[in-house]
Structures are given as structure tokens and as C-alpha cells.
Amino acid sequence: MKEKIVVKDLYKIFGPRPKHALTMLKSGVSKDELMEKTGHGVGIADVSFHVNEGEILVVMGLSGSGKSTLVRCINRLIEPTAGKIFLEDIEITALTKKELREVRQRRFGMVFQHFALFPHRSALKNVEYGLEIQKVDLAQRREKAMQALEQVGLKGWENSYPSQLSGGMQQRVGLARALALDPDIMLMDEAFSALDPLIRRDMQDELLTLQDKMHKTIIFISHDLDEALKLGDRIVLMMDGMIIQEGTAEEILAHPANEYVQKFVEDVNLSKVLTAETVMKKPGEVASYAYDGPKAALWKMKQAGISSIFVQHKNKLVGIVSADDASEALKKGEMNLKNIINTDITKVLPATPALELFTLLGENSPLAVVDEDDRLKGVIIRGALLAALSEGAQNNGSV
Amino acid sequence: MDLFRIPVGRVIELGLDLITEHLSFATKAFSGITESGIRILVDAMMFFPPWALIAIFSVLAWTLSRKKSVALFTLMGFFLIWNMGLWSPTVSTIALVLIATLIAMIIGLPMGILAALSRGAYRVIMPILDVMQTLPAFVYLIPAIPFFGLGAVGAIFATVIFSMPPAIRLTCLGIKQVPVEMIDAADAFGSTTAQKLFKLQLPMATPTIMAGINQTIMLALSMVVIAAMIGAGGLGGEVWKAIQRLEAGRGFEAGIAIVIVAMVLDRIMQRLGGKKEPV
Ligand SMILES: Nc1ncnc2c1ncn2[C@@H]1O[C@H](COP(=O)(O)OP(=O)(O)OP(=O)(O)O)[C@@H](O)[C@H]1O
Ligand SMILES: [Mg+2]
Do β-strands A3-14 and A82-87 pair in parallel, antiparallel, or remain unpaired? Predict the structure, then answer.
């Protein structure tokens, strides 16, 4: 995977003499002390991370943890105090003003929490703004802007003014304004936080659909675990201006780096409410060790639309057979599942907390939920677990 | 106290002398331009018979304010003025106000923009405005006389200085009021400072700037009246004459005319300054 953006040892200190404050901070003065003694506030401190090409990286953290500061440092809306930022082989932090303007025009699209649309311009003129700045001629920028509006489902609204559009529609305009420039990176600072929950879910879906086609590199700021789980290929967690954990949704849910993350994870859900029983799916088709051969097992998998099937013997779970192995066996003319059955399966009880399931869940193989008698009660696959968790978060009404 | 008197007045006199001597080319240029400006404007307005000009003003008031009531008020008010025999001084007062406002805007808007964009300029300009606004109006007449002598040009000079502060202040305020997130958006798309100013900040500041211009016009009107003391003429001149001749009725008539002019200008400007509904 190619690293698109690399951030190294980044600091941002607010105040009249940030460099001086930085040396103090580095020499071990605490943030509170720094604030008290010199009036300097630490926005972000010693932050390093990277963003892979084509991924959605969600930066998550409580209010004041430095998320906005971080994302604004990346296109230097906020000038970092120290550290380096690279976009491929361009060192953003070393660009002159003019070069920076060019990079902003061609590479970065930005979407804002409160939309930041220009109220004196129609939707179309808002979307055109970036192209207008680049002095693209009228016909061409009209066309591109119309395309972008169409992409976000706002065809027919181009002459409306922001004040005439609903919040969701305004943010679509905001999205279109960024997309019209066809940037390879999108910076989205709490882009959906100001929308009400239903619209917000729509917009998340929409973003994912667009992303399937566009493969942009997206840095998405959020303070909402649910949103992070849904959108993020990877998640960066911030606290007090520092990164405290970085990883996939599963990694963070399963191994919270400290109490703060633990709390974050718990606050938004779930572990106590959701158990294996509530997130599992009914097993549907199950193969019988005694009666079914590879052919029958394959047929059952096809019926259920699955790629591996659990095998029971005398009402007890004994193993799992994959479709690949079954077709191999079929070619060899084998008549039973004896040679291809994999008995190394992970079983959990229905009452197992959902968060523990992540640790147990392998990349591809599903988890089996069994009762005390080893009878198969249900199946847990990764996608379904994540979906159940994020739904649970919404139903709990948190955030 | 008699032993040593701090020579404040003396120093200022010396300073003024210095300026009049060495900046005579500038004061002469200013005189030339304003004098011909006033003459052209007054001649143009006096070219029409009063009833025609009143009709034109009323239509103008209607198109600018988009309100019948304002047009009607203009029509009736100006007819009353004509009827009282004050049409000619009214025309010259309006001309003085317009010229002074125009000059105040030409100087004030760029200063306001500068104060909004540069912290340094802000720190210099704002205290000066504070002082300017605390001085009583007729103090400005004093330097006007040595620079330009008695008459309309000196009056314009004093009026411009007196009426400019709100134009500067509100231009600055309007620009600074643009929400940070929008400025960020303009920056994030790679706008230059000029693009940001003309495509975002000024359009968004327009209502506030208009309010500033409205205040400038009102101040200009009041100053033009006071400037009758140095021979500005117009409606102020009528009041001044009435005071000297103890003609209370005549003085009140001129006063009523001033109020009418003020109200017409205010109503028209208020509508201009109000937010335009997007259609
Ligand atoms: N312009 C500024 N001047 C001084 N301090 C600032 C400035 N901007 C941010 N800060 C401080 O930096 C810290 C991080 O702020 P930031 O806005 O990045 O947080 P955030 O994670 O985006 O919070 P939120 O969820 O509320 O948007 C805060 O303590 C804030 O007070
Ligand atoms: Mg923020």
C-alpha cells in the first residue's frame, strides 16, 4: 500500500512565542504548566502518522483533543509550529505561499462542519468557486460544477441559494464544491456532525458509495465512534493533542490502548448490552457429517449463499468445510467429508460479550455460537458484527 | 501661571502654516476638483425645472427603495420645499452632501479594508478614528479656513473628515465579521488575498458597508449645515441668515427642509443596505 500523506513529529502551539514554548514543552514542562506560566496552549504535540492512498482515515477524539488543528495543519490553514508533512514526495511544510496555493487548488478538497457555503452565491456558483479561482473558463467550469452537483444528487437545485436548502443538501453542495476540483485528497472536518441522525446516516452511505467509485484519500474527523466504525478503514484516536491509538476498528474495539479509549468505546456502546446471541445470525444450512458428501455440502452452501458450512454430527458441532475444499474433494470423487473437515473451529457461548468476539474472530472463518450441549445456535461473521455494533450504538441513543 | 504658558496654540499655528505653504499644490488640486465637481452637479440639477427634478428624485427613490411610501414621501416633501421657495439652496446642499460622501467613500473604504486586513493598520487607524469622533463637529472648520479659505471647498473638506469615520469603521467591521470557517474555505481552495477579498469578504460585508455609508451621509448632511458658518451656503446658509436677521419663521422653514432631505436620504439608503433577498 502506498503512503499518500506522512506526518512526522508535528506540533502546534498557540500563543505569541510558540517556538519558545515548544522548547519548554520538549524539556518536560507539562501542558497545564505551560498554559499557566506562559499562556501558550498546546493544540497538538508530537503527532506522527500516515494515510494510505485510497483509504478513509478517521481521526477521532473528544472535543478539544486537537482534531481540527491536526486536519488544518495538513493543508496549512493552521501553520504548524514544528514537524513535517509530506504529500507523496512534496514537503507541504516547506512550500512557499504560491506553491501552497497551487497544491491547495489541485490536490486538496475540504468539507466543513458548518458547511461554510458562501451565502451570496447560488449552489452552482458555490461549487464553481474553486475552478473560478483557478481561472478555468466559464463553459468548462459550469460543466464540471454541474457534474459534481449531479454526483451528489442535487441536479435541479443549482440555482438555489444555501439559505433555501436543508442542512443535508447544503452539505451535499459542500461535498460537490470539493469534488468539482477532482482533488486526490479530501479533508473532512466533522462534515456530518451538524446533520440530524437520519440525514447523517444517508450522507455516510453516500460518501461510501462515492468512495467506491472515486478511491480518494480521505481524512475524516469525527467525535463519534459509530461514524468511525462505519467509515474508517483505519482509525486514529486523539487525546490532549496526542495520538493514543491507531488501528482498524476491530483492533481498537478489541484492544483499547488505555482507559480513555476504553471509555470512548464503552460510552458509545454496547459491550454490556450486546452478546454473541444478539449479534449472531441463524445458521441456516448445516451439513450432516453422517449423510452429506462434498456434493451435498456444496449445494447447501450455494443455497445459503455462503463460502463455508458448519458440520454437525448427532446434533453436535464437529467442524467446518469450505467450498474450495469441497469442490476439490468432489473432483477426486470422495463421497464423504472426512478428509476435508476442519475441526479447528472457535466456539463461543451465546452470552459472550460482543467486544470479546473481536479477539476471537479470524480474518475469514466465522465464529460458531453453541449452547452447553455443543449444539450450533448461530454464526457470527465480521461484517455482521460491525454492523450490529454500530446499530447498537445508534439504538442506545448515545452521541 | 503667567510665567510660562505652554504654547499649544502657537505650535499648531506654526504647523498649519507649514502645511499651507508646502502643501499648497495639494490643497489647490483638491480645491479645483471639488469646485468643478460641485459646479457640474449643481448645474446638472438646476438644468431641470424643479417639478421635473422632483419627479426624477421620486422615481429614483422608488426604484432604489422599492417602496411606494418612500417615493410618495419624497414627492410631497420636495414639493413642500419648492413651495417654501427653498429649492435652490436644497439642490446645493444635496450636491455638497453627495460630493462629500463620494470623497469620504473613496478614502474611507480602502482604509476600512486596510484596517480589516492588517493588524498594524488597525492599530494605527482605530485610535485616530476615536479622536476624530470625540471632537466636536465645528472644530473641523478651523483648519478648513487656512487651507481653503471661506466657501464650499473648505466646507467639503471639513465634512469629509467629519463624516468618514463610520465608513471606515463599518467597512472594517463588515469584513471582520465574515465567519472564520468561510475564510478557511476560501483559503482551502487556494484563493489569493485579492480573490478572497472580492469574491467573499466584500460581497458579504456589503450590508454593513452600506450601513456605514448611510451614517456617513447623515453626518455629512449635519456637517454641511454647520459649515454654513464658513460660507458653505445651501440650506445651512438659510438657517444662518435667519438667525442673524432674527427671522424665526424663515429659519424653521429651512430647518424643515433639512429634515425632509435627511429623511429621504436615510430611507433610500436603509433599503439599499438591507439584505437583498436571493431570487
Ligand atoms: N486559534 C486558537 N488559539 C488558541 N488555542 C486554540 C486555537 N485553536 C484551537 N486551540 C486549542 O487547541 C486545542 C485543540 O483544539 P481543536 O479545535 O483542534 O479541537 P477539536 O478536537 O477539533 O475539538 P472539537 O471537537 O470541539 O472541534 C484546544 O484546547 C483549543 O482550545
Ligand atoms: Mg474541531
Answer: antiparallel
Which ranges of chain A have pLDDT less than 70? Answer: 267-274, 362-364, 389-399
Total Cβ atoms within 10 A of residue A129: 24
Report the C-alpha gap between A18 and A77 in whole angstroms.
17
Residue corresponding to grid cell 493533542? A241
Is A30 within the bounds of a domain? Answer: no
pTM higher than 0.95 for the full model? Answer: no
CA A182 to chain centre: 21
Is any ligand 1 atom within 6 A of the Cβ of residue A69? yes
Q: How many A×B Cβ pairs under 8 Å? A: 64
Angstrom distance (rounded) from CA A79 to CA A92: 11
B168: its cell numbers: 471606515
Q: Which residues contact A20 (CB under 8 A, 6 or more apart)?
A: A38
Contact (Cβ atoms closer than 8 angstroms) between residue B198 and residue B110: no
Where does residue A46 fall: left (phi above 0), alpha (psi -120 to 50 degrees), or beta otherwise? left
Q: Which residues of A touch B184 (CB under 8 A)?
A: 72, 77, 110, 112, 116
ipTM given for this complex: 0.80
A72 CA to middle of ligand 2, Å?
10
Mean pLDDT estimate for chain A: 88
By the 8 A CB rule, do A91 and A8 touch? no
Q: Are A85 and A3 in contact (CB under 8 A)?
A: no
Please work out whether the CB of residue A15 comes within 6 Å of at least one atom of ligand 1.
no
Whole-angstrom Cα distance, residue A308 to residue A289?
A: 14
Number of CB atoms found within 10 A of residue B255's CB? 15
Residue A101: CATH number of its domain: 3.40.50.300
Residues contacting B10, CB < 8 A, separation 6+: none
* Encoded amino acid at A72, one letter: R
Determine whether the interchain pair B181/A75 forms a contact, defined as Cβ–Cβ distance below 8 Å: no
Range of the domain at A120: 52-82+89-270
Q: Indicate the CATH number for domain B8-49+86-272.
A: 1.10.3720.10
